[in-house]
Amino acid sequence: MAYVAVSGGKEAIEESIKLLDFYKSGTEKDVEIEAIENKLSLLVDRVMSEAGLYSTRYAALALKQCEGSVEEAVFLLRAYRSTLARNYYTKIVDTEAMRVVRRISAAFKDIPGGQILGATYDYTYRLIQFDADKESASAMRQAIQNALAAQSPEEIVPCPRVSDGLKREGLIDRFAQGDRAPCDVTANMLEFPAERSARLQTLSRADTGFISGLAYSALRGFGQVHPTVGELRCGFVELHVPYLLDESESIYIGEVLITEVECFNTADDKDQLKLAVGYGAVFGRNENKAISMAVIDRELDNGGPYPAQDEEFVLTHGDSLEMNGFISHLKLPHYVTFQSKLDAVRKTRRADGE
Questions:
Q1: For an engineered disulfide with 292, which of 190, 198, 215, 346 has Cβ 3.0 to 4.6 Å away?
Q2: What is the pTM assigned to this prediction?
Q3: Rounded to an integer, what distance in angstroms lies between the CA atom of residue 284 and that of residue 251?
């Protein structure tokens, strides 16, 4: 593939970049980073998930810089992430000890610890509130602060997994616990067949729309039919790093908000005595992506002729940065290659006497 320089390209590019300010100057009102971070939190969570960097502040900053373009914000965060030193790896996170803010099961009505609806748009009317522009942010915040102050704090009790009881009965699959450290796809090239840890990492960072579309194709019949959400939980998990002088000890460094899903499905034809499990976990409140990830995880385990069951197809094409970058490169000059295509067509037409 050949590119050629455009005459006056440098000056044109500089003016093009300046022109971006024109599209940001439509109003004198500014969009504060804090407002994006807290009022567009679902968008921020999506960007953090696809970028593989947990920082609500920087995700909001990236969104403001690029006019809300998700793929551009992911690009900015990934680029920044690549410059950061990696001093520690955290210990394996125990999500069973999650400080849950939302937890549901579509498989069982009554589950240990109870169902916690939490915050969700699932039960809203989906009608535009035309008076939303008249909301008072300060009044809303004050009302919430007053409501919180009137409540008594309760002890946080970890919720056991819905799947634990089924595992004890031998009704669902267990994945073998190996001694190998999890693969790091940001430091090592993805190889096929991929280790399970590499697969889950890649799916977690994949484009939300791509993963959702593949999961939808599986539900429509291009794969296993209609899995059941055994458990969806969203909450905060603690992060610990090994203590330098004694690795058996650990140091608490903070917590992150994640969404975790386990989907139950029928096993393959060789084993009708158990249910199969698909798993998904992503940064922030990002339920549809986590569910889609769990569906695709099961499809890849099962294998088959459909796109959602092809590991190389799914993991190679789902990366939001590479996908959007390759499509975006089509806007670059392809003068030489296109002329060669035209020449080939003209020669063929002359040979055919047209």
A1: 215
A2: 0.89
A3: 23
